[in-house]
Amino acid sequence: QARAGIISTVEVLKVMEAFVNEPNYTVWSDLSCNLGILGTLLSHTDFYEDIQVFVRDVFSPIGERLGWDPKPGEGHLDALLRGLVLGKLGKAGHKATLDEARRRFREHVEGKHLLSADLRSPVYVTVLKHGDSSTLDTMLKLHKQADMQEEKNRIERVLGAISQPELIQKVLTFALSEEVRPQDTVSVIGGVAGGSKQGRKAAWKFLRDNWEELYNRYQGGFLISRLIKV
């Protein structure tokens, strides 16, 4: 209804606030998706920081309840929910989540305590979103060292979270390098396009500047349409 212009988005946000005690992964996934769309729209306005505060307020109670480590008797959906919530809080700049993500990332890189598979994406996206060139270099090093394609793909999908313009360009150049399989290039460019307002503009320019190469690479396949869509 809000998207159709029938009711105010404020009403939607009020309904979302009522879900703070919700335990269900599917519901949180839907809330997260809708808030993501709203965040994208508001990134062009003065309200972007306000929506980040809203995300932190709505997601922090469930984040505190879940914590960082699995509890006895938890199911698969609880692990998914933990990853979703911590990633959302981390991207939104929730300080406690950011501090803990950085600590765990450091231990992971040093080989002291490897991150579990379900925590890697939220930790990677958090440290990148609030990271610098050394963070990006470390992620690219992890990508090079990864012996499983699943881990390479996981890293490729989150690289676009980096926010400085010159680092965004570095990620886009990496997308077309031999380090990335041709079928995975789209994930890297898509991650940049969805990562930030600056990323979206940079990815669109990159697509136009490299159109011939990309078109020749994917002509006739579904990946070209996916690329244009993202």
Automatic annotation (TrEMBL):
Keywords: Aminopeptidase, Hydrolase, Protease
Protein name listed in UniProt: PSA aminopeptidase
Lineage: superkingdom: Eukaryota
GO biological process, one term: proteolysis
InterPro entries: ERAP1-like_C_dom, Peptidase_M1_aminopeptidases
Stated family: Belongs to the peptidase M1 family.
Origin species: Regulus satrapa (Golden-crowned kinglet)
Protein's UniProt keywords contain Transport: no
Domain ERAP1-like C-terminal residue range list: 2-229
Single GO molecular function: metalloaminopeptidase activity
Gene: Npepps
Keyword Protease in annotation: yes
Gene Ontology CC annotations of this record: cytoplasm; extracellular space; membrane
